[in-house]
Design brief:
The complex is a heterodimer of chains A (261) and B (297).
Chain A lengths: L6 H22 L8 H13 L4 E3 L2 E2 L1 H32 L1 H14 L4 H11 L7 H27 L3 H9 L4 H39 L4 H10 L3 H30 L2
Antiparallel strand pairs in A: 1-2
Chain B lengths: L3 E9 L4 E10 L4 E5 L6 H9 L6 E6 L2 E2 L7 E4 L11 H12 L5 H14 L16 H12 L4 E5 L7 H18 L2 E6 L2 H7 L2 E4 L12 E2 L8 H4 L3 H20 L2 E9 L22 E9 L2
Helix pairs in contact in B: 2-3, 2-4, 3-4
Classes of the chains: A mainly alpha (261), B alpha/beta (297).
Chain lengths: 261, 297
């Protein structure tokens, strides 16, 4: 394909136009219940134009919803990293530990986010009003953990023997070997894990909100489906996608900074 | 009593022994070069002295104490630099200084590190990362080893990855530093000229498996040695011939035959004359050929 001026702008716009046309045609022909792009825009306008408005528990501006979701993701994600990084280091450093837990990790890793949520409810049943929040956090943390765990373990195993020999010749203490050699050498791998984990955390939050009915980008989607306002479903999907994309970009920027180390 | 002593040392990594029956005695302040072919076990030998590996049999003693673990009393310059890539030149050396002289005041530590950076002429590159240096990495590694003030300096082919010019500069630098410091040095190299230029004594390593040390050759050339003058020195020529012949002698005794099975791909050339639609990928059962290669004289 020949490059031309502004192709980075025009080509994506062409793609967008094609999808929008398909959508418009579909809504006019075979999927009569599907709101047209224009209707979606009309109906979503108040949420975009007043992004921080709060008209009711489940009727708030889109950035306000997003903010709720992001706060919960941040908490769950932080929890995931706090558990995942040490776990990854143990897996990378100890063969015994790996043999003990690797099969379990391989079994739990592919479990879909929503499957954990009921278990979370059971676990935190005694917390009354906060049960939903804790269950959601539990789900996010548990799902988002694995990429960081596995990447950290791979990173630790991949630390060149040369670096470890330096530590041995200098008689670095265990703590210093960890902080001066192992962690810096593993950082690029860890950041790859962090990025993948954040993606999963964002997937899990939407699912968790849909089931718990918490206010947020995912909760809004579910409640508007129940309220038969289909325009807002599409609007929510787009919002969730855009936010996920932005998060991923931000993490890639961070990751790239550590790659060079 | 020798300063460093290896007595009947053997080491294997599961297979046939890499080193077998190695005996070596080095006096304090001596500069000894161990010369051998690639893959003859030179790095294994230095790992044993460094304590990074333990011998299967025999003992390695420094100052009459058996070496059981690595330690900063033996400064190692690894073949592949082994600098931490996320630390600057200064920080790499400072990490070592921090470890060996924990009682130094911060200011003294800084001066100490800077002294050794200056010694290897890297002061302008003080805050650069290792990957930003090309010929300088090896010098940082040397500076780090020297900054630990080790009892013995172990150089594992420190210059083999460098171009000829940088190599010559660094050889001169190593000689200068050794003259000033009079440290005991074990240099591992595959370059006979380098060994002759720097060492008091050259010990050839025979070919593995089961490599051992040959008869050592004392280098009686007067110091400081000038590389240009040396080339015409009859004594230098005689020593070089002696060591080279000794090494070549080991090579002559090695003869190896390698048999390889090669599987030929199970395809035939396509017949382009046939019409495109009927053309099919011609197949034939794959064929195994044997090939024999003999190495050595």
């Amino acid at each position: 394909m020949k490059k031309f001026k502004l192709d980075w702008l025009i080509l994506p716009l062409v793609g967008l136009f094609i999808i929008l046309s398909l959508w418009a045609v579909s809504s006019l022909t075979w999927a009569k219940d599907l709101p047209s792009p224009l209707k979606t825009w009309e109906s979503s306008k108040p949420y975009i134009l007043e992004p921080f408005a709060k008209r009711g528990e489940m009727d708030q501006g889109i950035l306000r919803f997003t903010w709720y979701s992001l706060v919960l993701v941040a908490q769950g994600y932080a929890l995931a990293l706090l558990v995942a990084v040490p776990l990854g280091f143990f897996l990378g450093l100890s063969k015994t530990f790996t043999k003990m837990f690797d099969p379990l990790i391989q079994v739990f890793r592919p479990v879909f986010p929503l499957a954990w949520l009921p278990l979370g409810y059971v676990l935190f049943m005694g917390f009354g009003k906060e049960t939903g929040t804790y269950a959601a956090l539990f789900t996010i943390a548990l799902c988002a953990m694995w990429p960081t765990v596995l990447n950290t373990a791979v990173g630790v195993r991949a630390v060149p023997q040369d670096y470890l020999n330096v530590g041995r010749v200098l008689k670095l203490s265990r703590w210093k070997t960890l902080t001066k050699i192992l962690i810096p050498a593993t950082l690029p791998y860890m950041f790859t894990g962090f990025r993948l984990s954040l993606g999963i955390a964002w997937l899990a939050i939407v699912a968790a909100e849909m089931l718990t009915g918490r206010p947020g980008a995912g909760g809004f989607l579910w409640q508007e489906y129940n309220a038969n306002i289909y325009e807002h479903i599409i609007f929510s999907i787009i919002t969730i996608g855009v936010i996920g994309f932005i998060l991923d970009r931000l993490m890639s920027v961070l990751e790239a900074r550590f790659k060079t180390a | 009593m020798p300063f460093l002593e290896l007595a009947n040392v053997a080491k294997s990594f599961g297979g046939p022994p890499v080193l077998d029956g190695v005996n070596l005695a080095i006096e304090r302040g001596e500069f000894v070069a161990i010369v051998g072919y690639s893959g003859s076990g030179k790095t294994t030998l230095i790992s044993l002295i460094a304590g990074l590996q333990q011998p299967d049999r025999g003992t390695v003693k420094l100052n009459d104490l058996e070496i059981t673990a690595p330690g900063p009393d033996r400064g190692v310059v690894f073949q592949n630099y082994s600098l931490l890539p996320w630390l600057t030149v200064f920080e790499n050396i400072a990490l070592a200084v921090e470890q060996v002289f924990p009682n130094y005041a911060p200011e003294k530590k800084r001066q100490h590190v800077e002294k050794f950076i200056a010694m290897v002429n890297l002061t302008p590159a003080r805050d650069k990362l290792p990957r930003q240096l090309s010929g300088g990495r090896q010098r940082v590694s040397v500076a780090r080893a020297l900054a630990m003030d080790p009892q013995i300096l172990l150089l594992d082919e420190p210059l083999s990855a460098l171009d000829a010019l940088t190599r010559a500069t660094l050889q001169d630098e190593i000689e200068r530093i050794w003259e000033a410091d009079q440290k005991t040095v074990v240099l591992i190299t595959n370059d006979v000229d380098e060994a002759l230029l720097l060492a008091d004594r050259i010990v050839p390593l025979t070919l593995g498996p089961g490599a051992t040390l040959g008869d050592s050759v004392a280098v009686t050339l007067a110091r400081p040695r000038d590389r240009k003058a040396l080339n015409h020195d009859p004594e230098f020529k005689r020593l070089r011939a002696l060591v080279t012949n000794q090494l070549l002698g080991y090579g002559a005794r090695r003869k190896a035959t390698v048999t390889k099975s090669l599987t030929l791909p199970d395809i035939l050339p396509e017949d382009l004359d046939l019409p495109r639609t009927t053309r099919r990928r011609p197949l034939r059962p794959h064929e195994i050929k044997r090939e024999e290669i003999t190495i050595g004289a």
